[in-house]
Amino acid sequence: MSTSLMNQLGVVKRNIVRADAAAVEHLGRLGSATVHEAMGRVGLLKPYMRPIYPGAAAAGTAVTVLLHPGDNWMMHVAAEQIQPGDIVVAAITAECTDGYFGDLLATSFMARGARGLIIDAGVRDVRVLKEMGFPVWSKAISAKGTIKATLGSVNIPVICAGALVNAGDAVIADDDGVVVVPAADVIRVAGAAQKREDLEGAKRARLASGVLGLDMYNMRGPLEQAGLKYID
């Protein structure tokens, strides 16, 4: 473990600057794929992060938590820092697939106003979580429980499934994946994402009318130059 990480263990940052709420809601309506493209194809968590039930979607601001393998102690510490509209983003100091989170923690998180959980590890009680309507994106589902013995930290920068997440960042999650937008950039990205959505709407209408992508995107010339030949 690096010295810099060691220096951040056992820390809870209580005052964080959260991304603009209206911009976060806007990004949530547009979805993770559009937001990822509009942001320059960055901020996407690895594709093994999947919703525990189909159709799950959430948009909110990140409360980050750093956990140790097989130990969910800091999840209970993180619960106290949740404000309405937050999504907890949990990273692990070393790879683990244990079930860190279930219906009891979900009940606590929901009481605080959490909109979901992103965790680079395992969860359990999936049937009950679905019934509760609490969305989770995880690397694994596992009945194996955890202990409570080792300090981690809350609201420090973490790397979750390959992406840097700072406390207060916007988190957009749905069936396509999870994307993180820096808090300071959410308004710009929301504008760019809306422009992209509007453009795609126009393209969708043309494609529905029968126009081919070959013509709409002017592909025929480049394809010919690349050597494509049609044989009748």
Structure, explained:
The protein is 34% helix and 22% strand. With 232 residues, it is of the alpha/beta class. The strands form 2 sheets. Strands 1, 2, 3, 4, 5, 6, 9 and 10 form an 8-stranded mixed beta sheet that branches. A two-stranded antiparallel sheet has the order 7-8. Strand 2 (58-67), helix 4 (73-79) and strand 3 form a beta-alpha-beta unit. Helix 2 (21-30) runs parallel beside helix 7. The longest helix is centred in the C-terminal third of the chain and has 23 residues, at 186-208. The protein is elongated, with a radius of gyration of 20 Å. The termini are far apart. The model has no long low-confidence stretch (mean pLDDT 95).
Which features would summarize this protein structure in a list?
single chain, 232 residues, alpha/beta, 8-stranded mixed beta sheet, two-stranded antiparallel sheet, 10 strands, elongated
Specify the structural class.
Answer: alpha/beta
Largest sheet data: 8 strands, mixed
Write down the overall geometry: elongated
Number of distinct beta strands = 10
Strand percentage lies at: 15-25%
Rg over alpha carbons: 20 Å
How much helix, percentage-wise, in residues?
Answer: 25-40%
- From the N-terminal CA to the C-terminal CA, the straight-line distance is 64 Å
Low-confidence stretches: none
- Total helices: the number is 9
Residue-averaged pLDDT, rounded?
Answer: 95
Order of helices and strands: HHHEEHEHEHEEEEEEHHH
What are the SSEs and their pairings?
Layout: H1 3-7, H2 21-30, H3 32-38, E1 50-51, E2 58-67, H4 73-79, E3 86-92, H5 103-112, E4 116-123, H6 126-132, E5 136-141, E6 153-154, E7 158-160, E8 163-165, E9 170-174, E10 177-181, H7 186-208, H8 213-216, H9 220-225
Parallel strand pairs: 2-3, 3-4, 4-5
Antiparallel strand pairs: 1-5, 2-6, 2-9, 7-8, 9-10
